Amino acid sequence: MNEFGENFIQVFDEEGNEITLTHLGTIEQDDEIYMAFVEAPDEPVNLVEMDLELIILKVEEEDGEEVLVSIDDEAEFDALYDRFIEELSEEFGEEEEFGEELDEEDDEDNEELN
Length: 114
Known about the structure:
Strand content: 25-35%
Number of helices: 2
Mean pLDDT: 76
Number of domains: 1
Largest sheet: 5 strands, antiparallel
Strand order of the largest sheet: 1-2-3-4-5
Distance between the termini: 18 Å
Low-confidence stretches: 95-114
Radius of gyration: 14 Å
Order of helices and strands: EEEEEHH
Number of strands: 5
């Protein structure tokens, strides 16, 4: 667990800016593990009411450590996005509103985070 708690991680974008992400869920597909995140808000809010970008990262092992990497294959990302939306909608209980907010975001913003 890091200083923010088990549901938060800190990563760096391509420009070297530090970003805090909130972990929403983890799924396994085709023997691979994927994690869904949104950028952590500065203060507590209802995630369903926010305009959010869903960030999906793949868990890979490098030198014995787990690292998160972006998904470059658009078809793979789209399939994972749909599955995460379905699962998160069930969890949050507001499928239409939650899915609509995230569907508006463009997956080309899903860039590799270190």
